[in-house]
């Protein structure tokens, strides 16, 4: 782990640093918090430096490379962004103090003039952090939800897909903090069930988001309007990772003998 941290902070090759980040994430996912507990302060600082684009590899500019806020390597930042869900997976709610320091630097990648792939990287990362960290994500809903809602209408299918997953996880884990956004979320998701949406994975993620919303706040959902659209989208076609949420929701509705 000492070698990985040294690589993250001191190596001048972005691809090597990216591999170090991916290795750290894999170790956390496979071995748990005990394997990295002693190194967490240094790992967090190394991750923060990379998000600020202040690490050694980010100071080495190739010929013709622009010196601006959007000057970064996509592979590197994808690897860096994978660290945050890995931290959340092993630390759960205890990740919150570290996440508080990483949040704003991460969100900068979702702002103009960053390209669409940066925005969806941020949204996907936040969705996975919400999934793993749980209730503490509620403190960030007012900053994350406007971005996710905007991305639901993106021209890029990957962005719409990640946004649907994100709004679902935010609703699932943030409780009452997300309630005021339910009308806008339902409106945004409804477009993803329309015939004009050709990407099957996007529809599956939209169904997963609806399922999560129904399970946590059924009284806040107009089920008589939502259920016909939701059920028409089933069975899932491509993203079967949404199966647990979708079919758990259906089972709960059946067992509750809901009139709809």
TrEMBL record:
GO biological process terms on file: protein import into nucleus
An annotated GO cellular component: cytoplasm
Residue intervals of the Stalled ribosome sensor GCN1-like HEAT repeats region domain: 84-211
Keyword Repeat: yes
Main location (coarse class): cytoplasm
Superkingdom field: Eukaryota
Compartments, record wording: Cytoplasm
Keyword terms: Cytoplasm, Protein transport, Repeat, Transport
Pfam hit, one: HEAT_GCN1
PANTHER family with a match to the protein in the record: IMPORTIN BETA
This protein's name: Stalled ribosome sensor GCN1-like HEAT repeats region domain-containing protein
The organism's taxonomic lineage, starting at the top: Eukaryota, Viridiplantae, Streptophyta, Embryophyta, Tracheophyta
């Amino acid at each position: 782990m000492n070698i990985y941290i040294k690589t993250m902070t001191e190596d001048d090759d972005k691809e090597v640093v990216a591999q170090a980040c991916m290795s750290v994430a894999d170790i956390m996912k496979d071995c748990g918090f005990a394997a990295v507990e002693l190194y967490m302060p240094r790992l967090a600082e190394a991750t923060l430096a990379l998000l600020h684009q202040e690490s050694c590899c980010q100071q080495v500019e190739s010929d013709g490379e622009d010196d601006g806020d959007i000057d970064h390597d996509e592979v590197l930042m994808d690897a860096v962004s994978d660290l945050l869900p890995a931290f959340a997976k092993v630390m759960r709610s205890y990740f919150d103090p570290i996440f508080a320091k990483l949040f704003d630097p991460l969100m900068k990648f979702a702002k103009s003039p960053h390209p669409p792939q940066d925005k969806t990287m941020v949204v996907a990362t936040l969705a996975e952090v919400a999934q793993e960290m749980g209730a503490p994500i509620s403190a960030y809903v007012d900053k994350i939800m406007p971005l996710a809602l905007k991305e639901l209408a993106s021209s890029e299918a990957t962005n719409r897909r990640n946004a649907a997953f994100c709004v679902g996880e935010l609703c699932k884990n943030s409780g009452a903090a997300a309630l005021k956004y339910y009308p806008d979320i339902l409106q945004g998701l409804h477009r993803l069930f329309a015939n004009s949406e050709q990407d099957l994975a996007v529809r599956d993620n939209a169904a997963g988001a609806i399922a999560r919303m129904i399970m946590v706040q059924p009284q806040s959902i107009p089920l008589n309007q939502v259920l016909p659209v939701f059920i028409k989208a089933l069975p899932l076609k491509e993203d079967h990772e949404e199966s647990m949420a979708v079919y758990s929701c259906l089972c709960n509705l059946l067992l509750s003998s809901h009139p709809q």
